[in-house]
């Protein structure tokens, strides 16, 4: 029954998407409060699912890929709700909702919600490692969204084909500053998650270690390129999109709960 909450949350994000598409079709785009409320309702439903599922299994609800993807979607919206208004990215919801909807739709449609039959005591270090790493993924996802917004605005400026939504995009300098902060925020959280994995007292599967370290090195390289080699903002924006796509593609390799340890 808790899956119904995820379905309802997905419906809220779909409503936000439809509203954006209708506004774009009418060529009069205004972010408004409607999309924000729809996303906020989706976030509350996601939170309710995580609370109910977590209470049922007696631990952080990331024991299978279904829960991992829902937690990832929740982390993205959490970062948007907290960080977005601080950077005045009023248009970010129009880009965030489709990403979250796709992630949750995949989780609902794919046969990945496999419940473990045996319950064991929760490992506090493992819980911290998994949850903080997933929240870092949420920050990386929002950096990807900011990168897409940067590329869209840059293209509109170059082609002089200004859509009505262009007026609601922040200046390129401010947008790139927000992107950089999101990268650092996610990188610090991901580093904390990576280090905490060595304190779980559990064996570390080689494949998961390689996948996790690869993601860490990828984002470290982007930050190094930005601050040491002065990569142009456009290249950093492109790399943010590529990095998040690559990180999500290996998410199953960073399945934070080992199959050898029943949940």
Alpha carbon gap, first and last residue: 19 Å
What level of helicity do the residues show?
Answer: over 70%
Individual helix count: 8
Q: Which residues sit in consecutive blocks of at least 5 with pLDDT less than 50?
A: 256-263
For the sheet with most strands, the description reads:
none
Reading the helices and strands in chain order gives: HHHHHHHH
Alpha-carbon Rg, integer? 19 Å
Structural class: mainly alpha
Number of strands: 0
Average pLDDT metric: 83
- Which range does the strand content fall in? under 5%
The outline comes out as: flat
3D structure, described in words:
The chain is mainly alpha-helical and 263 residues long. It has 8 helices and no strands. The model is unreliable at 256-263 (pLDDT under 50).
Describe the structure concisely:
The protein has 263 residues and is mainly alpha-helical. Helices cover 71% and strands 0% of the residues.
Helix/strand layout:
Blueprint: H1 3-25, H2 34-57, H3 65-86, H4 92-109, H5 124-159, H6 172-196, H7 206-227, H8 233-249
Helix pairs in contact: 1-2, 1-4, 2-3, 3-4, 3-5, 5-6, 5-8, 6-7, 7-8
List the main descriptive attributes of the protein structure presented here.
263 residues; mainly alpha; 71% helix
């Amino acid at each position: 029954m808790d899956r119904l909450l995820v379905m309802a949350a997905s419906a809220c994000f779909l409503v936000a998407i439809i509203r954006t598409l209708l506004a774009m079709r009418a060529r009069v785009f205004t972010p408004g409060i409607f999309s924000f409320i729809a996303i906020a309702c989706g976030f509350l439903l996601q939170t309710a699912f995580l609370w109910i599922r977590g209470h049922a299994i007696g631990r952080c609800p990331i024991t299978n890929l279904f829960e991992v993807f829902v937690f990832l979607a929740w982390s993205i919206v959490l970062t948007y709700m907290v960080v977005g208004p601080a950077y005045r990215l009023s248009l970010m919801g129009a880009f965030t909702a489709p990403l979250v909807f796709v992630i949750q739709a995949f989780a609902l449609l794919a046969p990945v919600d496999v419940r473990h039959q045996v319950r064991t005591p929760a490992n506090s270090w493992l819980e911290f490692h998994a949850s903080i790493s997933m929240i870092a993924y949420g920050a990386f996802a929002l950096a990807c969204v900011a990168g897409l917004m940067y590329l869209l605005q840059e293209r509109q400026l170059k082609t002089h084909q200004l859509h009505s939504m262009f007026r609601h995009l922040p200046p390129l300098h401010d947008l790139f500053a927000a992107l950089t902060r999101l990268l650092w925020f996610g990188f610090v959280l991901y580093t904390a998650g990576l280090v905490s994995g060595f304190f779980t007292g559990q064996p570390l599967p080689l494949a998961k270690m390689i996948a996790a370290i690869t993601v860490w090195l990828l984002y470290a390289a982007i930050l190094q390129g930005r601050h040491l080699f002065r990569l142009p903002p456009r290249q950093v924006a492109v790399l943010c999109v590529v990095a998040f796509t690559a990180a999500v593609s290996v998410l199953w390799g960073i399945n934070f709960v080992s199959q050898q340890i029943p949940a």
